[in-house]
Amino acid sequence: MSSKEELGARFKQARTELGLHQGELAKMCGLDQAFISRLEKGEAIGTIAHLLAISKATRKDPNWFLLRSPSVNPSPPRSPTSAKEVAKASHTPEGLKKFAKETALHKPLSVTPEEWSALASIQAPGEIDAQGYMTLLLTIRSVTKS
Q: How do the domains of the chain map onto residue ranges?
């Protein structure tokens, strides 16, 4: 695999870890979907500005994309920060996905990006249903200062 292909594979990995389509990432970066596709296939070489835009959108350190071995300087998985990201992320527990998809539950609560991230970071010893995540959100709000 060439360096361009390795870099492209990392771009794709960062995007898919967030459950994003190429068009969604492109919009976040101010690029077009076709360019993201060419980058991921190793058919195009981006600029430093492109790398920084993709790094910011995926919340990965730019070095993560550039180092030959991701284990040398791995970026921790980014917690989703919106209902859409929570619902799409492959590592999200089912109860939290249901909470994120049930707009009637979370919309009136105006869940902030920080709160979505906090909910997504919870590692419970058992399963939590959608109502349980709503209760956790309210508990987080009651014990933290904002």
A: 3-72, 83-143
- C-alpha to C-alpha distance for 123 and 91, rounded to whole angstroms: 11
Place of tokens 């791995």: 74
Say which CATH class 3-72 falls into.
mainly alpha
List phi, psi (to 5°) of 143: -105, -5
Reading the block at residue 120, the tokens are 């997504």
Helix orientation angle between 130-143 and 113-121, rounded to the nearest 10 degrees: 120
Q: Which residues contact 2 (CB under 8 A, 6 or more apart)?
A: 42
Classify 44 as helix, strand or coil: coil
- pLDDT, tens digit, 9 for 90 and up, residues 25-79: 999 999 999 999 999 999 988 888 899 899 999 988 888 888 755 444 445 556 7
Query: In 3-state terms, the chain is what percent helix, strand and coil (to 5)?
Result: 65, 0, 35
